[in-house]
Design goal:
Layout (H helix, E strand, L loop, with lengths): L1 H27 L15 E7 L6 H9 L6 E8 L5 H9 L5 E6 L4 H11 L4 E5 L3 E3 L3 H6 L7 E10 L5 H21 L12 E5 H6 L10 H11 L3 E12 L5 H27 L4 H21 L1 H13 L5 H22 L6 H28 L25 H13 L5
Parallel strand pairs: 1-2, 1-4, 2-3, 6-8
Antiparallel strand pairs: 4-7, 5-8, 6-7
Helix pairs in contact: 1-12, 6-12, 6-13, 8-9, 9-10, 9-13, 12-13
Amino acid sequence: MWPFKVLLGICLVKVIVYFALLRKGNEKKVHLSANGEDGYSPGVDILLPMYNEAKVVLQTIENLLNIKYNDFSIVVIDDGSTDGSWDLVKGRYGGNPRVKLIKQRNAGKSAALNTGMSRSQSEIIVTIDADTWVRADALANIVGFFQDKRVAAVSGHIKVGNRVNLLTTMQYFEYVAIWDNDRAFSDAVNGILIVPGSLGAFRRSAADAVGGFRSEMIAEDTELTLRLLFSDYVIRNAPDAVAYTEAPDNLRMFFRQRVRWTTGLTQGLVKHCRKLFGHGNLYVAYLILPFTWLFRVLFPLVLPFADYYFLYAFVVQRRHEVLVWWFAVIISEAFVNLFILDKNGERVGVFKLILLQRLYRHLLFCNYWFIFAKWLDGSLFKWGKISRKGNIRLEEKTATREPEMLREEILSDLRGTEPY
C-alpha cells in the first residue's frame, strides 16, 4: 500500500503549505483603492493582438468598450489576418476614439504585443486575448496595485466562460481550483510564475527594461513573468479583476492548447531555473519552484498510475484493502478542492468534483503522449492555432455562500437534485 501512503503524505504536505500561505496572504492584504478614489488613475492601453479572429473579435472589443474606467484605450494589433478580421474591425471601429488600429505582417503574438507596447504612451499596458471578455470593473480592480512602484505586473482572475459540455466544465474547475488558486497563494510570497496573457497588466517601463515579449518562447506570458520575477520586481494577483475566456470544447483543440501550455511552462522553467533557484526570495527558490515542478509538471504524468495500480491490485490481485486507501486519497483531494471552490463562491457538488478530478487527470496524462509525438516529428515548438466559436457568457458577481447553503448543496448532490 506504499503508493497510496506516499500520495496521502504528499497531499498532507500540500495542505499544510497551502494553509500556511493562505494565512500569510490574509495577513498581507491591504486595501488598494483604484480609478481615482485617492487620485491614482494611470492611463491604460489594452493590447488586443489578433490573427484570424473574425468570429470573436468584434464581440470582444464591444465588451472592452463597456469597461468602467476613465483613461483607457484599446489597441488592436492585426498580425496579418487572412479571414477578413482587419476589415471587420476597421469597418466598425475605425472612427472610434477609444480604439487604435495597427496592422503588421504575420510575425507571431509576441511581435504583435511588442508592436502595441512600442506605440503605447500609457503607464500601464494590459494584454487580453481576442476570445476573452472582462467584467466592467476589471481595470479599476487591477490598476490600484501599481500604486506600489515595485509592482511590475498584476494577474487577473480567469474563468471559463463557455461551459457547454463536460470538457469545458472540467476546465472551469481547473481554472478556479488550480491555476487561479496557485496565483492567489503564490501572491503571499511574491512567487507568481504566470501572469496570463488572457488578462494580465504590466508596467510598461518594467516590461521594456527586461526586453519585452520574446518570440523564441512558446508561452510568452510565462517567460516575461519569470524574467520580471528574477529581476527583483513584484508580481501581484488581482482576484476581483475577472475575465471569462473561451476554453476548447473538443479534444482536438484541448490537446493542442495543453501541449503548448505544458511545453511553454517547462521551457520557461528550464531556461530560467538556475536564476530562480538563486533568487534572493527563498520562498521562490525553495517552495514555489519545487511546488510547480512537482504538482504542475511531474504529477500529471505520474498520478494516473495510482489509479492503474489500484485497478490491478483490486481486480487482479483481489486485495480488497486497497479500496480504503484509494478512497482516502480521492476524498482528501476532493475536499481540499471543495474548500478552495467554496472560498471562491463556486458551486460544484462533491461527487461531481470527484468525477471531474478522475476524468481530467487521465486527460492530462494523455497530453504527455501528444507532447512526445510532437517532439518526435519536430512540431513541438510550433504555434497551434485554436479555433473559436464565440460562445462566451459573462457571469455577474456572486455573493459568498453561507455554510447552510453549502450543506444544502452537498445534500442535494447526494439526492441528485438542484439545491435551489
